[in-house]
Amino acid sequence: MSSNSVDASSPLGAIAAQPSYVVLPRISASGLRFHTVLDFLTAKFDQIPPAVWLERIEQGKVHWQCGQLITANTPYEETKRVYYFREVSVEKKVPFTEDILYQDEHKIIVYKPHFLPVTPGGDYVNECLVHRLRIRTGIDTIAPAHRLDKDTAGVMLMTVNPDTRHAYHQLFLDGTIRKTYQAVAKLNDSLPTPALPQTWTVKNRLERGVPSFTMQIADGVSNSHSEITLLQINRGLGLFELEPVTGKTHQLRVHMQSLGMPILYDRFYPELQPKGDDNYQQPLQLLAKRLQFIDPITQQINDWQVNDLVI
């Protein structure tokens, strides 16, 4: 596992090396009416001024899947894919390095550092794990097989071959891949000094919160399940092992909060912190520690893990 610092160069504007795409929804499903593709883009991405979309279109940065350029007057066509290049005025360098743990013709096992997004999003277009790996390996078909939050570090499975990619996705759909995490949290003051290990089973219903990128516990039938074990105690902090049985967004973070022990340096839970620059000295203490699965192509047992968190 590597966290070697590199020189964080001055932030510069950036345009994505690879295009993103959006599927134009059926009018009957959305209830909206769009005459042109430009109408849809300005409504869908309302945080981007209409003049910016018009400029991108005029510069040839928006096109159909076949490569044909979209103009300001191109009619809206349901279910078609519109490709565009994401841009940001400022993109900072994440000063931590990913490690390739294993690579073959079908997959790459990689350690993703804290703060590095897996795919383009928000203020990041090229400073992401996928783009870094494509440059490093020269393979432009690399894609993630699963999600890992930008703020979370740890082991990830990346697919290489589009012809076998579905087999790795199926591991997650079938629940035949085992993910084990570690977290550090301040112990709940009401928690008596326990005999270790101590285990909690957490099941509840998670739904989108406000703002929508957060999650909250809601009434109703549970749709999330985690097994959480306290392994070590040191100076009021606990080292926990977490096994998500389901895979809801921010599930482990919310489940730790529900126990009264939010993960150390969590900027979302229990209270959303104001948006600001990342504090590289205080990474979220959540680590995707271990990934275990039987390779669907080779039938070999895979068991990949990285170093423990330290308390």
Q: Report the helical percentage.
A: 10-25%
The end-to-end distance, rounded to whole angstroms, is 17 Å
**H/E series, N to C?**
EEHHHEEEEEHEEHEEEEEHEE
Count of beta strands: 16
Q: Using only CA atoms, what is the Rg?
A: 21 Å
Number of helices: 6
Instruction: Give unreliable regions as ranges.
Output: 1-12
- Nearest-integer average pLDDT: 90
In one word, what is the shape? globular
Task: Give a description of the structure.
The chain is built from six helices and 16 strands. It has helices spanning 27-30, 37-44, 50-58, 129-137, 165-174, 251-258, and strands at residues 12-15, 20-23, 62-64, 81-84, 87-91, 99-103, 107-112, 143-144, 153-159, 178-186, 198-208, 215-218, 224-234, 237-244, 286-294, 301-305. Strands 6, 7, 8, 9, 10, 11, 12, 13, 14, 15 and 16 form an eleven-stranded mixed beta sheet that branches. It has a three-stranded antiparallel beta sheet with strand order 2-4-3, with no helix packed on it. A hairpin with an 8-residue loop joins strand 8 and strand 9 (153-159). The model is unreliable at 1-12 (pLDDT under 50). With 311 residues, it is an alpha+beta fold. 15% of the residues lie in helices and 31% in strands.
